[in-house]
What does this fold into?
Amino acid sequence: MYTLKKQVGHARRGEFKTVHGTVQTPAFMNVGTVAAIKGGLSSYDLKDIRTQVELCNTYHLHLRPGDKLIHELGGLHKFMGWDRPILTDSGGFQVFSLAKLRKIKEEGVHFSSHIDGRKIFMGPEESMQIQSNLASTIAMAFDECIQLPAEYDYVKQSCDRTYRWLVRCKAEMDRLNQLPDRNNPHQMLFGINQGGTYEDIRIENARLNAQLDLDGHAIGGLAVGEPKEEMYHIISVVDEYLPRDKPRYLMGVGTPGNIIEGVARGIDLFDCVMPSRNARHGHLFTWEGIRNLNNAKYEKDLLPIDPQCDCPVCSRHSRAYIRHLLRAGETLGQRLTVMHNLYFYNRLLERIREALENDTFEQFRAQYVDVLDTRI
It folds into this structure.
């Protein structure tokens, strides 16, 4: 259940109650693709860096260790030692991005595993069954992720099919939640708005999705190479047609500046692999901008990554030491940089929530929206 506590323009400060705890929104969901954060962070580390929600990948967990095994072991929360909310994506993005050989039909998608090449079929029902076995807090509907640019007619055809798939997802999730052996019989379902950069398709799809009694609504298919101004425009267009009393989730976005602008346009939830992926290559987010620890000027620098940050890494280690670890190929270097970047993102959303509560969001936005995305 989502409760809107305060609204500043289109920006929303809310609470999202789930069976696994209440999420303070806006919030950033830390991405643990195979039930782990790449970079060596455990579920216990995530609590230390103020993570509220972890996102896991349906496609990868289905391939290994297998969703049926996870179901047998008590579900994803028990499996990975995490007692806060988990969102699982539908597997759609990976089916369309990783699978080289695929064939889309009305019933679903036939494709080959990127690991061993074995033939797999996934449709709306199969995606829901896998996510039900994982027993995540929130399941995502199965959709087609369109590669941009795309012709209008194809986008329209794909979007219509994605909506028909959503109807099937909802029916199957309702059925699964009634089964006596479910580890989470209160699993939620979010629909996904698609439509490329075509306003009319986006609006029609948002209207149709809003008519279904879903637990939340996501905006997908953005941040795939289009100009950021175009992405912001589509978010603003879709915002007008989404239910006020349900959380909105912008999938796969993005930079700190993207997040600030997304909040300003009514988004409640975000996820992105970028902070952890960039961290593993020495690119660190700070309140002064993006710092590249690979630069020689940090070789003797005893300051923390960010003097304004109170994360466990900045409290204990210097830029010089972490740079040494990264250049030496020590895994500790990646662990420390990932921990810092994810803490920064979690703290960024905390500060956004504080600014909304204090009626200072526009000042915060003006101060940080550009600088946080700028390389030092």
User: Anything to note?
Assistant: Residues 289 and 372 are 4 Å apart (CA to CA).
